[in-house]
Amino acid sequence: MCYLEGMTDDIELITDLLGDYLRDGRQCSEYDLIRWLQEPGQAVFDKDALSDNLMLFRANFLVMHCLYRLQQRWGADDTGYLEVSALKVQLRTTAKDSSKIHNVAEHDVMAEYYLDLNNIETDSDAVEALLNEFWQRMVKPEQLDADLAILELNPPVSSQQLKQQYRRLAREHHPDKGGDGVRFREISSAYQRLRYQVA
Question: Is the pTM of this model over 0.85?
């Protein structure tokens, strides 16, 4: 069954909810919006919506799709310009923003991507490939060495070795088992970066 079937009403609902939430000019991040949509008052997303890469991708996609729809809607009716990025979402209604209002999404590659609902059909393998590409571009060579040191590993490292060492250290340092929370977060962050670097 196609993921898009029957989503029209959901998309309208999410767009309207976001419109009500953002209309007063409040500034927030996309993450804040996803968390807000998880709250019982909205209950749009399951509490586990951020726990799996594919679910996170689809939650992100839906929110961004609805934000760009709202951007177009508010631009067309002169409500204002909705600034949309992962770190900052905010309605702007000042005169200096009015030049942006009527050109919304015309040349915006991100808007073009998120407004095409077919892109939500991206499967888990493609999502993993996107994440892998992201981390390969983001991690600096010195970060790779530092992350290996945090996990007490020396190159070359296989993905199996990485996973085993992460599990061992995570068990050892988990706060629920008397470990150090800061050390546990360092280990988890290093593993998240390395898992896309190690073959």
Answer: no
